[in-house]
Amino acid sequence: MNENAKSRLMLILLRVLVYAILIFLTALCLFSFYLMIINATRSNAQLQAGFRLLPQEHFMDNLKNAWTDASINIPRGMLNSLFIALTSAALTTYFSALTAYGVHVYDFKGKNLVFTFIMAIMMIPAQVSAVGFVQMMNKLHLTNNYIPLIVPSIAAPVVFFYMKQYMESVLPLEIVEAARCDGSGEFRTFNTIILPIMKPAIAVQAIFSFVSSWNNYFIPALLLDKAEMKTVPIMIAQLRSADYSKFDMGKVYMFILLAILPVMLVYIILSKSIIKGVTSGSVKG
Amino acid sequence: MSLENRPSSGRRKSISYAKWGYIFILPFFLVYLVFTLVPQVLTIYNSFFTNYMDGLKQVGPDFVGLKNYVTLFTPNKQGIILILKYAGNTLILWLLGAIPQFAIALLLAVFFTSYRLNIKGQGFFKTVIYMPNLIMASAFSMLFFTLFSKVGPVNQLLQQTGLADKTIDFFVSKVTVRGLIALMNFLMWFGNTTIVLMAGIMGIDQTLFEAATIDGANAVKVFFRVTMPLLMPIFVYCLITAMIGGIQMFDVPQVLTNRLGMPDRTSFTLVMYLNNYLSTSKNYGMSGAISVIIFIITGILGGVVYKFLSAQYKDPVEKPRRVRKGARK
Amino acid sequence: MKKLIAIVLCLVMVVAAVACTSKPATETKTETKTETAAQGKVFNIYAWNEEFKGFFEKYYTVPEGVTVNWIINPSDGGVYQQKLDEALLNQANAADDEKVDMFLAEADYIGKYVNSDATMGIDAIGFKNADTMYKYTIQAATDDNGVCKGVSFQCCPSALIYRRSIAKDVLGTDDPDEVQSKLDSWEKFEAVAADAKAKGYYMTASFAETFRTFSNNCTMPWVDANKNLQFDPMINAWIEQTEKFIANGYTLDCGIWDDEKNQQMFADGKTMCFFGPAWYFNFCMGNAQDPEKGCSGDWAICEGPMAHFWGGTWLLAATGSDNAEMLKDIFETFTVNEDVCSKLVANEKQFPNNTKVVDKFANDATYGSEFLGGQNDILAFSKLTGNIKWENHTNYDQILNESLQSCLQEYFKGSVDKDTALATFYQKINETYPDIVTP
Fold this sequence. Notes:
The complex is a heterotrimer of chains A (285), B (329) and C (439). With 285 residues, chain A is mainly alpha-helical. Chain A folds into 2 domains: 2-62; 72-284, MetI-like (MetI-like fold). Helices cover 74% and strands 0% of the residues of chain A. In chain A, α4 (74-105) packs across α8 (157-170), α4 runs antiparallel to α11 (199-215) and α9 packs across α10. Chain B is mostly helical. Chain B contains 14 helices and 2 strands; from the N terminus they run ααββαααααααααααα. Chain C is an alpha/beta fold. Chain C folds into 2 domains: 41-155 and 311-362, D-Maltodextrin-Binding Protein, domain 2 (3-Layer(aba) Sandwich); 158-309 and 370-432, Periplasmic binding protein-like II (D-Maltodextrin-Binding Protein, domain 2), CATH 3.40.190.10. Chain C has helices at residues 2-21, 23-35, 51-59, 79-89, 110-114, 135-140, 164-171, 176-182, 186-198, 211-215, 233-248, 259-263, 278-284, 324-335, 338-348, 355-362, 377-385, 397-413, 418-432; strands at residues 42-47, 67-72, 102-106, 150-152, 157-163, 202-206, 251-254, 271-276, 299-302, 308-309, 313-317. In chain C, strands 5, 6, 7, 8, 9 and 10 form a 6-stranded mixed beta sheet that branches. In chain C, α3 links the parallel β1 and β2. The radius of gyration of chain C is 25 Å and the shape is globular. The chains are: A mainly alpha (285), B mainly alpha (329), C alpha/beta (439). Chains in contact: A-B, A-C, B-C. Chains A and B meet through α1, α4, α5, α6 and α8 of A and α1, α2, α4, α5 and α6 of B.
């Protein structure tokens, strides 16, 4: 009885502690978002005047200025970014799972080599090969084209590695064999049985990939320069780099807010599907 | 685990499915070859050449052997080998952010998945802690820069509350600059790590936890004996990707310190170094050499961590593997 | 085998899907092409921001049938020059309608393009420099062989911009001529700085505020013929002066673009002097013009201790352009056309590259700048234009000037000693320009 009460007290204390930690971290995380939103409600002059914690009255002005800006077509940019990010996320998760499955399930010559190889290339920093990449795209006349932004996501070593690790912890080979007994083809097994099991992993990686594609500035900036092809980060950089001439920081913050909004929405939607996917526990079958 | 009760599965597998392995990995390698390998090989190849732009004039490419590497490892007039200094900076900056990142993420992942604690509002918390990861790193850094500038709200707040009697310049001290970079990296990545680790914990067969609890194991014991070993593959994944991210640390210090890595380049990272060579003069030779060095460092670190961690938790991790190996014969 | 076929088919479908996804890209491309298939019907302009584009669209009438493409890339991280360089190096192989016709360049790196084959002489397109253009703007666009490659639509003499109220308090007057007589040498400037300090003011708000005044008056370039880095006495003079100003508390230790400096432009700011050309107080002194906290009208300009200029945008003619006639038209519109140049003053608050128009405004008693308390800024600036010197420039100036300031800032702030700061400066040069020999 006493023991029980003690452990109950411990649990309550622990809960209080946990919530305290969570609230602290939440505040820390929300603070920057809060400031960004506040800043989007302030005029350039007000922003220059220093920080304030309360919103000011220029939200609609900034929104109007940003949305209808003659030279920076943010609605178009958002559409472009959305298209690239969605297709990249789809390709990267599907093909990484496929590749990981190929390495995980099948026994073939050079399999270990393949795994080690992918592990090794994962570590090559993207910065310098990016320049070689851009040179090559120039030669292939693939600038101002979305192919070099989308197709390379098929070969994403990091996502492959995650999928492989995930399969190692949740995917018993017996499932594959059972499917074979039922006469399912290899490809069908992957699409209809394995992919659903991999759903939580796919959802997680889809978010990561969507976000990194959405925020990607370095490569697209080097490849795209036609106004109608530009993505959101390029537009934002363009706005900020108005050098020494006039730039409206209120509008800049509004652009950043607009740039983040779709990502947040997608994330909130997908985060639900992750939880669902995990709790439905497709692994147990 | 029930897996071990199916010993006969091996024979069926002896029908060769090997070709499917090749087919399934084919798209990856084709795309990799075209879009990544060629530029990467070019990078390594470049590191043995003098090759840069002087204005609009191309200098080189002239083969110089290991000269670029020798230049990198030659001490400067102060007797400092700069690339080692910057590698050290990168490591310190990464560790300062990664240690709290993993400690907190692991803790939160366990809290969130604990039935006993039964945390309410999980969806909200998880959504929120992941959010900083959504902001473009450069925008986030700009925000921090304004926050902590001499006329920013943090200084205003410190003075209003009497915690500081005069303006603090956060960007003159090694400690504060590194601290800010670490804080930002922590904020940007701990939510991400939490979610990945959570997915890992939830992928673990729940009956194992139940069994352990019935056997009388307390929460701490369950964590170290059941959760951690089974989580190890995902944990190692997180650690290695974080390390790769860390060694490529660039946006945050670049924007926060306005490309300087001040004071005295103590927050100057390897990729910032690389970028300095690359950005104006397109010095493929030197930047190629730096990236090869980064590659080697990452390879060693990755290998060490992977070996070390998988050795420590050898038994539990090995178990399912052994089954698979048996099944494959 | 069937399954293999199925998989191959699947792969083909995926590839097809991928190809489809990229279709919008190719489609838009062909669309623009068909619109403008005829030769010389596309005019491509490379720029790093929208400033000139705004003037262009307002004041230049594009010939019928010609499409103007603006290729705008941010100068952040060198992206603008990188893309421009790629396009220029590729110019010979590019289709006529993809070729760069005109591009914009700034004072700090214009030499790189002027002294290259990527730009062509404006003589070749039939444009003659007019007498009404300021000499230095022509010099800047002229290569080592005397061939002029472009024009500037603005002239950027830089002035000492001071707060009238603080000047009254410190100097006893806010009249530009009288203030000038009390600040026309560095000795006087320093003496006044001490007075200002005694009254609780700062002379300047940034350690680098006076850098341009010194660096524009250097007697030798940053780099000699053998590519050795050299410190001009003027640069050393700037360092010495700044050391003194920091030590005595005459200036704040922030950079020229920092918020901390910008806050000094509010009504409650304590700084007397800023340095900059017309575009500086029009575009960068927003705080001073803030309706609530600003102090518009409490400002005036005078020459200060030394004549200098700052910035400026040039329009350069790209080799290989198939729109020579239009290039000539544009150059004429923004330099010779008095109507357009007048509008640049009246509507855009620019200081145009046309002495006739400048004289017209300078002699117009009814013209005055509200911001400068009614002072005729065109008149004030026009007096400075004669003293601007364009000499001793190198292609490396932008990075060298920027890096020197940023490295020495650490020294001025006291976080490193001078030798360490200079060592970092040399290191930065080695990283950026392998050819330059540093001490």
